[in-house]
Amino acid sequence: MTDIAAVKAALKQQRIETPSWGYGNSGTRFKTFAAPGAARTVWEKLEDAGEVHRLTGIAPSVALHIPWDKPSDGDWGKVSHFAAARGIEIGAINPNVFQNDAYKLGSIAHPDKAVRDSAVTHILECIDVMNKTGSRDLSLWFADGTNYAGQDDFRSRKHRVRSSLEAVYAALPDGKRMLLEYKLFEPGFYFTDLSDWGVALGHCQALGDKAQVLVDLGHHAQAVNIEAIVAHLLDEQRLGGFHFNARRYADDDLIVGTTNPLELFCIFVELVSAGNDPALSSHTAQVAYMIDQCHNIEPKVEAMVQSVINCQEAYAKALLVDFERLRAAQQKGDVLGAHRAVMDAFKTDVRPLLEEVRVDMGAPADPIAAHRESGYLERVAQTRGTADASGGFPT
Ligand code: PSV
Ligand code: MN
């Protein structure tokens, strides 16, 4: 039996973080199409993130990428205040150690210690930004890897990664966390230093409790069972957070839940299940739910709202799983009975329930319709104009 009041209460607690870089122009390596009104500066990205929160009621923080989002005067207090005035706060801080020429052969795994040191120095500056903005999470992704057999020594690179991460970990104040993101390929095509959850988990366990694994849904090979990875990391108490997006072939960064709604739902089922487990509930409560998505052909604010809604729908359906029925069927070895228990929840239309939840929270029942009616896009297109296509994703 489902306790709808409890489901609604849980839905009101859900939080999804949006990425600043999702509000600027972005594209493929073939073409970046300039979108009218796309954010050009950190201020405009914060305005857009505030609009997504106003429309959904569950997106009260925004992740920043440094130096893309660094204000010209370096005044992070001003950034925090600007965000607070729009009802949002600064979320994860993402250092960028992949765009300087010096990083051609890697950053924290680079053969030259001077390059490794400069990458660590940049990350330490990002910890300073966390201290100034009140951000809890340092979100680390490294483009480090190689393209050819023999290009560099795997074990030496592993040791360089470990000692660089140790230097960062040592500087992390109490109460802050380091999230380590893995990716199986790109820009390295032969080998990636942090290629999968096992490698990331190994480093995190060696570093200490403040180091946690970040799962980006786009960073796995085809057919990898991400919900099983999530279950394993939760059980190890090492799931730090997500980068939600949808993929079809590679790291496509499409709107969350568009190509993979069942996968997204199954991930949330694991989270609800762990949240119900007294041994894992406090670990599960600290998981960061972040979107990492760039929109190439669709309007950006609207796309971000759709992603938030899709996360909300997946969570609502996961909350409807009858776990008593599911566990009983599993215990009996009733294969289809167990499958049907999960699929019954997946097939439930949760849209009317979510409309009620939104209205209770003071958000519009239909955030997309409200956005279209509000004239926000027309207004920002007028005031911001059409930014240079490289405006949001600096090269
Ligand atoms: C890398 O593909 C990634 O997923 C990392 O999270 C980066 O920070 C982000 O995309 C933006 O480049
Ligand atoms: Mn990511």
CATH architecture: Alpha-Beta Barrel
Compute the average pLDDT. Answer: 97
How far apart are the first and last residues' alpha carbons, in Å? 53 Å
Total DSSP E strands: 10
CATH fold group:
TIM Barrel
Helical residue percent? 40-55%
Low-confidence stretches: 391-395
Task: Give the oligomeric state.
Answer: single chain
Strand content: 5-15%
Provide the spatial order of strands within the biggest beta sheet: 4-6-8-9-10
What are its keywords?
alpha/beta, binds manganese (II) ion, 11% strand, 395 residues, binds alpha-D-psicofuranose, 15 helices, TIM Barrel, three-stranded parallel beta sheet, 10 strands
Describe the SSE topology:
Elements: H1 4-13, E1 17-19, H2 42-56, E2 61-66, H3 76-85, E3 89-95, H4 113-133, E4 137-140, E5 145-146, H5 154-170, E6 177-181, E7 191-192, H6 197-207, E8 211-216, H7 226-235, E9 239-244, H8 261-275, H9 281-285, E10 288-291, H10 300-319, H11 323-332, H12 335-346, H13 351-360, H14 367-374, H15 376-384
Parallel strand pairs: 1-2, 2-3, 4-6, 6-8, 8-9, 9-10
Antiparallel strand pairs: 5-7
Helix pairs in contact: 1-10, 2-10, 4-5, 7-8, 8-10, 10-14, 11-12
The chain binds alpha-D-psicofuranose (PSV) and manganese (II) ion.
